[in-house]
Amino acid sequence: MFVYEKKLQYPVRIKNTNPALAKFIISQYGGPDGELGASLRYLSQRYSMPYPELKALLTDIGTEELGHLEMIGAIVHQLTRSMTPEEIKKAGFETYFVDRTAGVYPTAASGFPWSAASMAVKGDVIADLNEDLAAEQKARVTYDNILRLSDDPDVNDVIRYLREREIVHYQRFGEGLRRTLEKLDQKNIYAVNPAFDR
Amino acid sequence: MDRNQRDDAYRYGCLPDRAPLAAAYVPMQCSAVPAYEPGEALSRGTLFPGLDLPFMNIVNSNLKSTPMTEMMAIDFVADELELYLDTHSDDAEAFAMYQTFLALQKEARERYVQLYGPVTQTDMLGMRDYAWLNNPWPWDFQPKMEV
Asked: Over its length of 198 residues, how does chain A's per-residue pLDDT go in tens digits?
């Protein structure tokens, strides 16, 4: 069960409308390494996690990612606040605008809509945790790239915060993998899948 | 945290003495201390100086202190300690810290709700009207508005 908290995890207060930035930041809403994929990846993988530490970790990080999805949505919403048709055309935002107006839709910056093909659920603790480690790194790089492209300090504050969260999550997934390895047969960690072979 | 502290042990974690082949190893974080103060933790995106690895070494300046950011900062420390405890459930010192922050979280939440309205629907117990509908919603920000 989920309960909504009417607050963001970190404040999003963007003073200036700027659809040119919204065009690529939206990739962290619905792109291949974005927050929607992150939350669904962890919240789906948790069913086949064999140990309580991992059930907790995937639940807690997956839930936090939903909060990050909301923050990215808030950035896109505020960057497209009260846009004029001139601003839309000048920013090259018309390809998005014509289909979605100023709505927030889960899509990659390339225009490809969010796809479950950008995430995986393998049902094996070692495989899934290795996917999660890679996913955090890819999200971190996407935030690095956004920082390279964006010159709005109000946006960059939030992006730096979200980027740092990826590093903390990487550490925790790595520790989750360590806790897993300790529980497995030390002579052959691949002898069984503890979520499937009883 | 003492910025002049010369000991940088907190930047390094613990690896096993012996480890089975064909697996990836991330060092365990050894301790939940040192830790940033809540406001600095929220601005930096982590409670832990050892995990604070900013791009191009640019860090956010501290957020302006308001009842909202104070609540966010304490909630953030509690969340950050939860993730740490998920993989360090036997760390008694971290669990004691977590208890302290759960108490602070309750106070900060009550203070905020009194001033600005409910954060969750259960916060409305005893309220005179259905304040859930009150503006602002979290994603709305007008440059003139400040909560």
From this structure: 999 999 999 999 999 999 999 999 999 999 999 999 999 999 999 999 999 999 999 999 999 999 999 999 999 999 999 999 999 999 999 999 999 999 999 999 999 999 999 999 999 999 999 999 999 999 999 999 999 999 999 999 999 999 999 999 999 999 999 999 999 999 999 999 999 997
Query: Number of Cβ pairs closer than 8 Å across A and B?
Result: 147
Which one of B83, B85, B113 makes the best mutation probe of the A interface by having the most chain A beta carbons within 10 Å? B83
Do B3 and B20 meet the contact criterion of CB atoms below 8 Å apart? no
Cα separation, A127 vs A134, whole angstroms = 11
Give CA–CA dist A64/B116, Å, rounded: 24
Give the residue extent of every domain in chain B. 30-117
What is the ipTM metric for this complex? Answer: 0.97
Query: What does the domain layout of chain A look like in residue ranges?
Result: 19-183
Domain A19-183 has CATH 3.40.50.150: no
